[in-house]
Please model this.
Amino acid sequence: MTSSERGNSVTAVVCVSAAGFYVPPMLIYKRKRMKPLITNGAPLGTVFITQEKGWMSNEGCLEWLNHFIKVKPSKQSKVLLMLYGHVTHAIYLAAINQARNARVRMVSLCPHTTHRLQPLHVAFLGTLGTYYDEAMRKLLRPRIPQPVTTWQVAELFGNAYNQAASLRIAMKGFHSNY
Model:
């Protein structure tokens, strides 16, 4: 998610079940240290991490997986977690072991197929992008020449996510595919 400025991007990790349960998202910032002000306006329960490159790393994957395990419905029931096709972290041994111990089965979809197979791609991410663009336009309209800064991303994302994260959208993604 970026404005027209060629600056740092922020990676959002989102997850939803076929029943419409949304796991609170994770936002990954390209920076050394996290500052509390950068989290203002994010969806309730959002996890924030920093990474050298600003996208998911093996360590970030493990941190998100631990977050997912904390909020998954039951420790007794198995859960299938479908991963984005470009995720190399599905072969990260620590993540595999952590998932196995928590009865989470991970399936990595083939690269370049997620736009058709991944329920989030089919229904949620397009809607989220539309709402994010709308929130960004509202913010920028009174201050045309100024780009969106990293400090504003959590609030913009929060506004968009809270509008897009509905039961109907989640179920539509799974219904469209399966």
Remarks:
- The radius of gyration is 16 Å.
